Amino acid sequence: MSETLERPAQAHAFDLKQAHKEGWTLLEGCGPENDETHLVGLHCSDPQAWWRVARKAGEGSTYHREALARLSENEREQIRLRFGPL
Questions:
Q1: How far, in Å, CA of 69 to CA of 43, rounded?
Q2: Mind giving me the DSSP string for 2-56?
Q3: Using an 8 Å Cβ cutoff, are 83 and 54 in contact?
Q4: How far is CA 45 from CA 12, 33, 51, 60, 67, in A?
Q5: pLDDT digits (tens, 9 = 90+) for 8-48
């Protein structure tokens, strides 16, 4: 995952069906300013969900790279600290 991930310039429809099947989801509108997006585990811990998505993105999955790009910078920083550069 050597490329820097950036948030999409404009909102696109993001289908969470695959994410839910994999046991994670994106929560939008979090944080004190309601402008953060977090990746959370549905049936596993958040760090396990982060690891799964980061690993798949690292393997080249466009879907998972898009999911990581949608996260707020604070959330991406937490993932980078635990799993390395995105």
A1: 22
A2: -SPP---SS------HHHHHHTEEEEEEETTTT-EEEEEESSS-HHHHHHHHHHH
A3: yes
A4: 27, 25, 10, 23, 17
A5: 444 455 688 999 999 999 998 887 777 889 999 998 898 89
Please give the Cα distance from 25 to 52 (Å, whole number). 12
pTM: 0.74
What crossing angle do the helices spanning 73-83 and 46-58 adopt, rounded to 10°?
Answer: 80
CA distance 54 to 58: 6
Instruction: Give the pLDDT score at 4.
Output: 47
- The helix (run of H) or strand (run of E) holding residue 79 is helix 73-83
